[in-house]
Amino acid sequence: MTVDNISSGTVHGNRIGGTTVTTTRTQPVINPATGERIGEVPLSESADVDAAVQAARSAQPGWAALAPQQRAEILARWADLLADNREDLAATATAEMGKLIKESLGEVDRAIAEIRFMGGEALRADGQTFPSTRSGTLVYTTRVPVGTVAAITPWNFPIVSPVRKIAPALAVGDAVVVKPAEQSPLSALLLIDLLLEAGLPAGVVNVVCGSGAEIGDVLVAHPGIDAISFTGSTAIGRRISRSAGERLIPVQLELGGKNAAYVDADADLDRAVAEIVSASIQATGQRCTAISRVVAHESIADELTARIAAEYDALSVGPGTDSVDVGPLVSESARDKVVNYVEGAIAAGAVAATSGRQTPDGPYLAPTVLDHVRPEMTVAREEVFGPVLSVIRVPDAATAIKVANESEYGLAGCIFTKDLAAALAFAEQLDTGMVHVNHGTASQPHVPFGGVRASGLGAYSIGHVAQDFFTKLKVVYVAA
Ligand code: NAI
Ligand code: MG
Predict the structure, then answer these.
(1) Which residues contact 300 (CB under 8 A, 6 or more apart)?
(2) Is the pLDDT of residue 65 over 80?
């Protein structure tokens, strides 16, 4: 296929019922590195959402009726097409949201791995059998598709976020309406075109572009939607949860994080520094699982902070298409928000450990380490979503766990230590969905992924547990 997604001025349409549907109102997609308009996408209205939901509902029973191997084969072909179009997909993601090309290529590879795993899941949907208290009776559970799923995705992972919702849905026989983020719809459109090329029947997956504020509520409250998978801010997650609660439909919410890395007195500092820098700076810190708090044992805090700050000061900053270490933030307004956090922290008594050097014009920010942050400061509590690390000093591991848990978020956390008992205590007591020991906050493509408290609600995504959201459990009693 030919890809013209990122040629300037191209007007794109929604993908509804297997066809491209243009709208009268459109909105530009902006390259954050250059400020250029790289395309126009629909600013959809409720009638467009309705058409997409109807198309999905019409297509879903036929899709669910296919043999699971047939669904798996289409997913396998989709994965192959992502591999064939790896560079175009990566270039599209980088153009629309700014991350480094190498990060976008890594994201395509990750998406391929998740699709391949989920293709296999078509034949692994499982149930249980139970001994019966009545003789001659078979009792078992089975999985049935949840139906038509709304997939609302953020801009920070424009390729993997839609894939992480579409692939498990398709594996089990669901249909999908995708609402990609305003900032990054082009990757989603390209993904769907590849899926149609892979042989997906028309209407099984539809994409409606538009403003979350204008059509988000319409999609979420649409009576034709059976379940909602959302990744994004905690505020919108709460709003979606309220609406879904009213209708008693399931949600899978993947929300923000305030992930802490505790570095114990005996930690291997080479390792801790390398893992913390990598897990805090990837995607310019715009990851839900980014490390954003370093909780440092006071005996090593000076050395640790100085070493991380030196690494941060050595990171080159520039457009994602250049060979630099850190790309732009997604927009000028996102940059301003992050700058506000840094300035507020310094006004509250934090001390910048990095040099605050000049960066190129545009939504760039020098990676910043803030030392002497206190747990009650705003920068230590809210999701900053930028290249900023807060160092909080603690006297012992027990205080470290207390500080790490002093957050409404509960996504991921890490400990760096050689003390096995300290590691196990941390893993047990940290109130997060995921814990890493001597390992940054990086996940793998077949392992459950999710958070607790303000970081998430509903079944975790990725891996075999995805079926808990994308299917309904049915219990069957059979007497001969
Ligand atoms: P957002 O939560 O507003 O947007 C995420 C998605 O939700 C987008 O597709 C958006 O169009 C949609 N949306 C917006 N309002 C909606 C509504 N009423 N109903 C249904 N869908 C709606 O996030 P935004 O504005 O892009 O970023 C704000 C902050 O949220 C970031 O600075 C960051 O702190 C956090 N965030 C966290 C993410 C994560 O990976 N955990 C991803 C994106 C944002
Ligand atoms: Mg928003």
Answers:
(1) 263, 265, 267, 269
(2) yes
Q: How far is the C-alpha of 177 from the C-alpha of 161, rounded, in Å? A: 13
Ligand 1 pocket mutation pick from 161, 233, 241 by most atoms within 8 angstroms of CB: 233
- How many CA atoms, within 13 angstroms, populate the side-chain half-sphere of residue 120? 9
Indicate the pTM of the whole model.
0.97
Tell me the pLDDT tens digit for each residue of 167-198: 999 999 999 999 999 999 999 999 999 999 99
Atom of ligand 1 nearest to the CA of 455: 41
Contact between 392 and 375 under an 8 Å Cβ cutoff? The reply is: yes
Closest residue to atom 29 of ligand 1, CA basis: 233
Report pLDDT for 6. 57
Tens digit of each residue's pLDDT (9 = 90 or more) over 22-57: 999 999 999 999 999 999 999 999 999 999 999 999
Rounded-to-integer distance, Cα 89 and Cα 112, Å: 12
Report how far apart, in Å, the C-alpha atoms of 291 and of each of 148, 228, 253, 326 are: 35, 27, 20, 15
Backbone angles phi, psi at 60, to 5 degrees: -60, -45
Protein residue closest via CA to atom 38 of ligand 1: 232
Distance CA 303, CA 370 (A): 14
Residues labelled as active-site residues? 254, 288
Per-residue DSSP letter, 379? H
**Closest to 127 in 3D by CA, of 474, 433, 459:** 474
Q: Which of 170, 128, 118 is nearest to 146 (CA)?
A: 170
